[in-house]
TrEMBL record:
GO terms for cellular component: membrane. InterPro entries: Chemotax_Me-accpt_rcpt, MCPsignal_dom, PAC, PAS, PAS-assoc_C, PAS-like_dom_sf, PAS_4. Belongs to the methyl-accepting chemotaxis (MCP) protein family. Keywords: Transducer. Residues 86-138 form the PAC domain. Transmembrane segments: none annotated. Residues 149-171 have a biased composition (Polar residues). This is Chemotaxis protein. The keyword Nucleus does not apply.
Length: 397
């Protein structure tokens, strides 16, 4: 009797242990052929069945068709029938066909001779952890792919940034060269503007001189014209003097004749008359010489008037040309000043371009440095992704 009580106490103790375990774990009992004998409420709740629906059913009720016929499943039950403990993560399907992952142990219960009598399963639901692990694994793959893509992009960006920096340096150098050339052109334009202003000033001075020459030529022409008129008047006087000299000569001749008739008394008068005649003759000769010179002067005066008139015409033409040149030079000076101003603006623009290009080059160098940092960060991410994948792969799912 005492032994029976002790045995009952031991059974009650073991049942209390099973009850305690059943509060936190799903428990099911199977025959050695896999037929379900009993299951606690937690197991039934996880699988979505009533006990009457699963009692007497084979364990493969909770597997899909492929897993039922798998060689591994056959080996699983053979091992249990040899009394070998089986533990791990197992995928089951509940009544709705939804996957339920269990962290379970299948424990063969042995009789006194060590022969397996039945199998008891203790399991915990790890479906949520499995889902999390799947998500982590998926994200780890995505992270690895993203890190590789980031590495590729950062390498490409670094290469492009270096090329941009190199090209920016070339453009900057070219801009500086253009700027130097513009400065040379600006200097030349300024010098040309100064020269054109000098030419314009000289052209104005030449125009003034030409205008004065025209005025002086006109005055000289008038003076020579008056000289011609005076010469004509002198010619008239010479003709009068010549006429008087001729008359005086005739009178002297008559006086000589009369003196000869008077004889001795008229000798003195004859001498005077002869002297008068000779004087009249010399006067006529001198008057003829003067008349010839006056005629030559008149002829030269006419030629001078014509020459001065021609010179005046030429000077007028030169004056017109000088005025045209002065006007054109003034226009050219204005144009050159505008060119000089535009070139100066271009020089400012070239300076600005060179400054901006230098900024682009600096930005490209910063981008290249940033790309290098991104590449290093991508490499670190890739290493972390690989490590994460390795950790996740340690879990069976």
């Amino acid at each position: 009797m005492t032994e029976v009580i002790a045995l009952q106490d031991k059974v009650a103790y073991l049942q209390s242990i099973l009850d305690a375990i059943g509060k936190s774990q799903a428990i099911a009992e199977f025959e050695m052929d896999g037929t379900l004998i009993a299951a606690n409420p937690m197991f039934l709740n996880l699988m979505g069945y009533e006990l009457s629906e699963v009692q007497g059913q084979h364990h493969n009720l909770f597997l899909n068709e492929q897993e039922k016929s798998a060689e591994e499943y056959s080996h699983f039950w053979h091992a249990l029938n040899r009394g070998e403990f089986q533990a791990g993560e197992f995928k089951h399907l509940n009544k709705n066909g939804t996957e339920v992952w269990l962290q379970a142990s299948y424990n063969p219960l042995l009789d006194a001779q060590g022969k397996p009598l039945k199998v008891i399963q203790f399991a915990m639901d790890v479906s949520e952890q499995k889902s999390v692990l799947r998500t982590v694994a998926k994200n780890a793959r995505h992270l690895s792919d993203a890190s590789e893509e980031l590495t590729s992009v950062s390498q490409h960006m670094s290469s492009n940034a270096e090329e941009t920096s190199s090209q920016s340096n070339v453009v900057s150098a070219a801009a500086e060269q253009v700027n130097r050339n513009i400065e040379v052109v600006t200097t030349g334009a300024e010098e040309m503007t100064f020269s054109i202003k000098e030419i314009a000033l000289n052209a104005h001075e030449a125009a003034k001189v030409a205008a004065n020459a025209v005025k002086m030529a006109a005055e000289t022409n008038q003076l020579i014209s008056r000289l011609g008129d005076s010469s004509a008047e002198i010619g008239k006087v010479i003709r009068v003097i010549t006429s008087i000299a001729q008359q005086t000569k005739l009178l002297a001749l008559n006086a000589t004749i009369e003196a000869a008739r008077a004889g001795e008394a008229g000798k003195g008068f004859a001498v005077v008359a002869n002297e008068v005649k000779e004087l009249a003759k010399e006067t006529a000769t001198a008057t003829e010489d003067i008349s010839g010179k006056i005629e030559a002067i008149q002829t030269d005066t006419v030629g001078a008037v014509k020459a001065i008139a021609d010179i005046q015409t030429i000077i007028n033409t030169v004056n017109d040309i000088q005025n045209t040149i002065a006007s054109a030079v003034e226009e050219q000076a204005a144009t050159t000043s505008e060119i000089s101003r535009n070139v100066t603006e271009a020089a400012k623009g070239s300076h600005e371009i060179a400054r901006n290009i230098a900024g682009v080059a600096e930005a490209a160098r910063s981008t290249s440095a940033g790309a290098g940092e991104a590449q290093r960060a991508a490499s670190a991410l890739r290493r972390m992704a690989v490590s994460l994948q390795e950790l996740v792969q340690k879990f069976k799912f």
